Amino acid sequence: MLREYVKNIDEYTIEKFAQSNGINLSDDEKKIIYLYIKNYWYQFYKGDANELFKELEEQLSKETYQKILELYNKYKKKIK
Fold first, then answer.
1. Is the dihedral of CA 66, 71, 77, 80 positive or negative?
2. Residues with Cβ < 8 Å from 68, sequence gap 6 or more?
3. 43: number of Cβ within 10 Å
4. pLDDT tens readout for residues 31-41
5. How far apart are CA 18 and CA 67, in angstroms?
6. What is the pLDDT of residues 41-60, one digit of tens each?
7. Of the candidates 31, 40, 59, which has an alpha carbon nearest to the alpha carbon of residue 72?
8. SS3 60
9. Long-range CB contact pairs, 58-67, < 8 A, 24+
10. Does residue 80 surpass a pLDDT of 80?
11. How many whole angstroms separate alpha carbon 34 and alpha carbon 20?
């Protein structure tokens, strides 16, 4: 089910989700997040995402990175 959701996700969906959680993404941030979700979703879901977050920290604004990390941790706990 998650695989199908990721398969159909687009930048607009990412932007709307971010906005609904108080995150304003730049166009570059939207593209970066989109690429990471599309390419690494399984590692975020089942693997160790620490290296991915280190990469994202270098590419996103501090505020965006912090909020995304908080959301990731929140939803990761709900999944477990």
1. negative
2. 23, 33, 56, 60
3. 13
4. 999 999 999 99
5. 9
6. 999 999 899 999 999 999 99
7. 40
8. coil
9. 59/29, 59/32, 60/29, 60/32, 60/33, 61/26, 61/29, 63/23, 64/23, 64/25, 64/29, 67/21, 67/22, 67/23
10. no
11. 17
Q: Say if pTM beats, i.e. exceeds, 0.70.
A: yes
Residue 62, both tokens: 């501090």
Give the range of the structural domain holding residue 50, as residue numbers without chain letter.
2-79
> Residue for token digits 């990469």?
55
Question: Could you give the number of structural domains in the chain?
Answer: 1
Distance in angstroms (rounded) separating the CA atoms of residues 2 and 42? 9
CA distance 77 to 74: 5
Structural tokens at position 29: 């941030």
